[in-house]
UniProtKB/TrEMBL annotation:
Upper lineage: Bacteria, Pseudomonadati, Pseudomonadota, Alphaproteobacteria, Acetobacterales
Any Gene Ontology biological process: cellulose biosynthetic process
Pfam families per the UniProt record, alphabetical: Cellsynth_D
InterPro entries registered for this protein in UniProt: BcsD_bac, Cellsynth_D_sf
Record-given protein name: Cellulose synthase
Species name: Rhodovarius crocodyli
Length: 158
């Protein structure tokens, strides 16, 4: 089917019931816009990464023996918070792990209609979770990658 992308039925179901609760939309927009007013982009993102790291501590993932188990544990936590779901893959050539985070809660701001600011929160969240897993190395970062085709793609690797 040229030009059409078929979405997984489970993703369609999830998208139909997802959303940021109305009582939080105004608060989150005001918070991010206030951060944008008082901090440069790097400072805002650093603070949001720290928030994501704290979220990882508050919703810790136990040590996992396989990538499939890690994905399941992460998705259990994300589902409980209505924060979307993740698909994890390894790229041996790039010596990296890629996380496609689907259906992240999006709240637009004056300067960010797509709500891309949540990417910095996800960087901190996944960095916190992955740092506690067996075999994790210090100094390995989690960074949002450009593109993503509807998902926020993060790269874990040096």
């Amino acid at each position: 089917m040229s030009g059409q992308q078929i979405m997984d039925p489970s993703a369609i179901s999830y998208m139909a019931r997802r959303g940021v609760a109305p009582q939080w939309r105004g608060f989150l927009r005001a918070l991010v816009e206030t951060l944008d007013t008082h901090l440069d982009a790097a400072g805002r993102d650093a603070l949001l990464r720290a928030v994501g790291g704290r979220m990882a501590q508050l919703a810790a993932i136990p040590a996992c023996g396989t990538l499939a188990e890690l994905e399941t544990r992460i998705n259990d936590v994300l589902a409980a918070a209505d924060w979307g779901y993740a698909q994890i893959s390894l790229d041996a050539q790039a010596k990296a792990m890629f996380i496609a985070h689907h259906a992240a809660p999006a709240v637009s701001t004056y300067h960010d209609a797509q709500g891309a600011w949540v990417g910095a929160v996800l960087e901190g969240l996944y960095a916190g979770w992955l740092a506690t897993q067996p075999g994790a190395e210090g100094g390995v970062s989690v960074k949002v990658q450009p593109g993503g085709g509807g998902a926020i793609t993060l790269r874990y690797g040096k």
